[in-house]
């Protein structure tokens, strides 16, 4: 039913993990991020790999 993975397949799978990444698109409305953004970033980090976040919306460049 199950077959053992060949060593070459394991090496290939391990090398693909280096390229695993997640892009989170965060919605910014006036002075804050949408509440779901933190949940999404948390879920992305649990997947493993690199997490990038793109913030889009109104007044994104505002600094205090």
Automatic annotation (TrEMBL):
Similarity annotation: Belongs to the ETF alpha-subunit/FixB family.
Subcellular location: Mitochondrion matrix
Annotated ranges, domain Electron transfer flavoprotein alpha/beta-subunit N-terminal: 22-60
Any single GO BP term: fatty acid beta-oxidation using acyl-CoA dehydrogenase
First-listed, main subcellular location of the protein, grouped into a coarse class: mitochondrion
GO CC, any one term: mitochondrial matrix
Gene Ontology terms for molecular function: electron transfer activity; flavin adenine dinucleotide binding
Gene3D superfamilies: HUPs
Subunit structure: Heterodimer composed of ETFA and ETFB. Identified in a complex that contains ETFA, ETFB and ETFRF1. Interaction with ETFRF1 promotes dissociation of the bound FAD and loss of electron transfer activity. Interacts with TASOR.
N-terminal signal peptide: none
Entry function: Heterodimeric electron transfer flavoprotein that accepts electrons from several mitochondrial dehydrogenases, including acyl-CoA dehydrogenases, glutaryl-CoA and sarcosine dehydrogenase. It transfers the electrons to the main mitochondrial respiratory chain via ETF-ubiquinone oxidoreductase (ETF dehydrogenase). Required for normal mitochondrial fatty acid oxidation and normal amino acid metabolism.
Record-given protein name: Electron transfer flavoprotein subunit alpha, mitochondrial
InterPro entries on file: ETF_a/b_N, ETF_a/FixB, Rossmann-like_a/b/a_fold
């Amino acid at each position: 039913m199950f077959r053992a993975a060949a060593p070459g397949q394991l090496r290939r799978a391990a090398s693909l993990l280096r390229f695993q990444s997640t892009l989170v698109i965060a919605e910014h409305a006036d002075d804050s991020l949408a509440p779901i953004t933190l949940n999404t970033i948390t879920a992305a980090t649990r997947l493993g790999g690199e997490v990038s976040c793109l913030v889009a919306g109104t007044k994104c460049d505002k600094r205090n």
